[in-house]
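Inputs:
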Amino acid sequence: MTRVLVVEDEPQIVRALEINLKARRYEVDTASDGATALRLAAARHPDVVVLDLGLPDMDGVEVIRGLRGWTRVPILVLSARHSSDEKVEALDAGADDYVTKPFGMDELLARLRAAVRRAEPTTAEAEEARVSTASFTVDLAAKKAVREGRDVRLTPTEWHLLEVLLRNAGKLVSQKQLLQEVWGPTYGTETNYLRVYMAQLRRKLEVDPAHPRHFITEAGMGYRFER
Ligand code: CA
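Outputs:
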């Protein structure tokens, strides 16, 4: 279920949004000022925030900055102001989109769906990029590997090889496929390269490189990564 945080101090607008969102099976939290909004966002982890810029206690742009300090949650701004500077400032501060008041409910809901949709793959990709095993953790996006609490340095070729194996976790990746993906399409028989680089990966990431748990050799065929 998608959780929406509505930040708005005008009761009629809050009510209209609540009715329309709940009718479409969204979960709704509401805040009528910026301080409550920041507290609720931290407590409830909404999937999307609908934010009025004109709040009683602080400027909505301050709320955007507060949220962007720790979360990439999509923010859809409601702006009553006609000044385009205001919108530019909100977008620069990290808002994803805006709707000008008075707004049509259909347009707002469509923009909300679009903001949620755009955010989804990023979260999924980020999770996919992080792999943890009993021996080590790797973040492919951040290019960070940690074993026993210490950073492990990998060369670009080692990263590339690791990435291909991790993306095919649990599956046999043939020697030819690894060579072509990491070294290039003209490679395919240089299995000695693989032996050298796999030994390095094991030395850096396995607890006992002589008895690998994660980087398994399938003799004569290829390699397999096991979590
Ligand atoms: Ca307002």
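Remarks. The first helix runs from residue 11 to 23. Helices lie at 11-23, 34-44, 60-68, 84-93, 105-129, 156-167, 175-182, 191-205.
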